[in-house]
Amino acid sequence: MTPNPEPYSPEPRFTWPDGKKCAVMISFDVDGETTALSEDPALATHLTTMSQCEYGPKVGVPRLLGLVDHLGIPSTFFIPSFIVQQHPEMTRTIVKSGHEIGAHGHLHEKLSTLSSEEEKAVLAKSIDILEETAGVTVQGFRAPWFEINPGTPDLLVEHNLLYNASMMSDDVPFLHSNGLVEIPGQWLLEDWEQFAFNPDPAWGFIPEDCDKVYQLWWQEFAAMRDFGCCFVLTLHPWLSGRPSRVRLLERLIRDIQSTGDAWFCNGSELANWVKQDPGNRREIDFDA
Ligand SMILES: [Zn+2]
Q: 31, 86, 152, 279: which one has the fewest Cβ atoms less than 10 Å from its Cβ?
């Protein structure tokens, strides 16, 4: 075999709108206090832990919403309906600003701990609360902790959802056999692994330097652009709403914008693009 001296540039995985080379979806999981409460309801009396979670909807969301508006990009906020009930005006402001809200459980329940009947009830309740509070039709879902059950895709279609943003088997969207669009994520593009820390309960690690995280995320963006992929960033306002991380995001998004190669979209715009023409996807799985 002879080495090729040219850079490796495989066929792009997808055809994106307006001749763009890749898609970029900036998403926020506004878990607030449900991060703690879904782990153990007794944590409700751990006021410092609860207050760290509360920082997300209280300070992180307004600041991050200001950032995405300032940069002129669409985004999707997945919000447990318990948090929507605690922060109805925050939820309505996100929608009024032109951003999408998506379902994310009621109390951020781990789906694997629920029976199918319980999962169905939680999904119905969470969609109802989001829709009644914000006056919108919910189209997307991200599973709390990113983990779904075998019956989840059918349940989402039964509740008229267009897409799920929870799986990790690809780096471009795909269609489930029931027509549900999947927008895959990955742990590399998650802020929890970089920034989360709480001593008790023990969450995360020593928070990382923003310059290191910029490099991590920028390098993945640059390669995903070369390979025609879909860059889905998953951010938690209690982590990414802290000042130096807002600056990190501003730098990252501006640098992505300056390439002119990225289609910035929210979840439903992305899912509709996939639905409209599944032929935009280029299969590379040898056994597909
Ligand atoms: Zn979450």
A: 279
Residue type, 185: G
Q: Where along the chain do its domains lie?
A: 17-280
CA of 53 to the centre of ligand 1 (A): 11
pLDDT in tens, 193-227: 999 999 999 999 999 999 999 999 999 999 999 99
Model pLDDT for residues 92-122, shown as the tens digit of each residue: 999 999 999 999 999 999 999 999 999 999 9
Ligand 1: distance of its center to the CA of 142 in Å? 8
Q: Tokens 């995405």 label which residue?
A: 68
pLDDT confidence bin for 176, thresholds 50/70/90: very high
Those residues whose C-beta lies under 8 Å from the C-beta of residue 226, and which sit 6 or more positions away, are 9, 21
pTM of the predicted model as reported, rounded to 2 decimal places:
0.97
Centroid of ligand 1 to alpha carbon of 259 (angstroms) = 30
Instruction: Output the CA angle 155-156-162, nearest 5 degrees.
Output: 155
> Could you tell me the distance, in angstroms and rounded to a whole number, from the CA of residue 29 to the centre of ligand 1?
5
CA of 109 to the centre of ligand 1 (A): 9
CA of 146 relative to ligand 1 center, distance in Å: 8
Please give the distance, rounded to the nearest whole angstrom, from the Cα atom of residue 18 to the centre of ligand 1.
32
CA 77–ligand 1 middle distance (angstroms): 10
What is the CATH T-level fold of the domain 17-280, as seen in this structure? TIM Barrel (3.20.20)
Give 74's DSSP letter. Answer: -
- CA 81–ligand 1 middle distance (angstroms): 11
Task: Using the mean position of ligand 1's atoms as its centre, give its distance from the Cα of residue 227 in Å.
Answer: 28
The 10s digit of each residue's pLDDT in 115-143 is 999 999 999 999 999 999 999 999 999 99
Cα–Cα distance measured from residue 205 to residue 109, given in angstroms and rounded to the nearest whole number: 23
